[in-house]
Amino acid sequence: MAGKKRKDKPAPPPQHRAALDDDDSLISSKLSSKILKEAFNQQKEILQEAEEENPTPFSAVSVDPSVASDSDAEDVDEFDGFSETQSLYDGGEVEIDEEDEKVLAAFMSAKSGPQPTLADIIVQRIKEKEAEVTTERPLPKLDNSIIDLYKGVGKLLSRYTNGKIPKAFKHIPSIELWEDVLYLTEPENWSPNAMYQATKIFSSNLSAKKVQRFYSLVLLPRVREDIRKNKRLHFALYQALKKSLYKPAAFFKGVLLPLCQSGTCSLREAVIIGSIIQKVSIPPLHSSAALMKLAELEYCGTTSYFIKLFLDKKYALPYRVIDTIVEHFMRFLEDTRIMPVIWHQSLLAFVQRYKNELNKEQKDNLHRLTQYQKHHLVTPEIRRELKNSRNRGEKEDDLMSIDILCWFVCDYIISQVVTVFP
């Protein structure tokens, strides 16, 4: 009846809702086939529209991330590109002192190879299965219609500036062989705006473990290449990095740690990527874990820069993390190299923030370290901070009691001196 109110559907039971929200759930082959067929038809229409419109390319102008919208609720289908106002600033452009760059370059690893990409992994996987690979870009064993579909998606993404993202691309996170399918789209050729959209989609729809692989094999190599080529980072790629922090654990395991482990992280890369860590709020537990991992890595000059960034956040750190950081610095006790200024600054930041959480033995060791590793401006400050602090476990009242006792003793001695020498 016309006047009858429509009843709302009852909410699904909790177990069913959990199943719907599961990041790792996969679409059945039958349903996947229907989706891909429908997506293929839609893709044809989108490609035709794109050819007719021929939109102007995105300008790689300087933009400040602080003025950019950081809403995760933004719909990928409503993406209009980045505004002209944003193009007046740049979060991905920094001034680097050449002398500092040379000093830190001395601490880079000479043995490290290039950053592995998704293409490297997939090609290696195909080569393991086939004795000979004849084509220039080997193709995974998938249905020809799927290969054609996602090759078409890749062509569209290579010139994408704004507007709709193909539905076939949005379904990639639900496909079992998602890496192989993603490889077909040639991520290395995506436009910066397409990379931003892809990062939003994958960070929202993949599990932390899977999105970590996307970050390390697709996003990080692209970001590093852009910085190397242009001496700055395209604003859309900078925004993609910010979006990648939607899952902090995946960001640290897929971006920050591989970058430092490579042994080839430049000062420019550290400053640009570090600015995101500075600006974005990160859960303390994730930051503590990242800090501990950084302290355990083989040293690269820019590692000190990232360590200082986390220390400056002033989070309450577990004793285990503090002990690991002390051990990190003590590794340089007998190092004959002249440490860069950033190393001394990171040590100063550490003792300033956590001097009262160090035990007496650790302070003695750090005092000894400053005898061997010195900086004419920073080292005196480090020693002063260590001297004017209480030990781990001591209360402030205990320290005050000691000060008061010392005052009384000094006062008594002075009075005796005055008595002897009237």
From TrEMBL:
Location of the region described as Disordered in the Swiss-Prot/TrEMBL record: 1-25, 45-74
Superkingdom assignment: Eukaryota
Protein name: Bystin
Similarity-based family: Belongs to the bystin family.
PANTHER family: BYSTIN
Keywords from the named record: Nucleus, Ribosome biogenesis
InterPro entries with a match to the protein in the record: Bystin
Localization of this protein: Nucleus, Nucleolus
GO biological process terms, semicolon-separated: rRNA processing
Pfam families in UniProt: Bystin
Molecular function GO terms recorded: snoRNA binding
Annotated Gene Ontology cellular component terms: cytoplasm; nucleolus; preribosome, small subunit precursor
Entry keyword annotation includes Chloroplast: no
Signal peptide start and end residues: none
Record's compositionally biased regions (Low complexity): 57-70
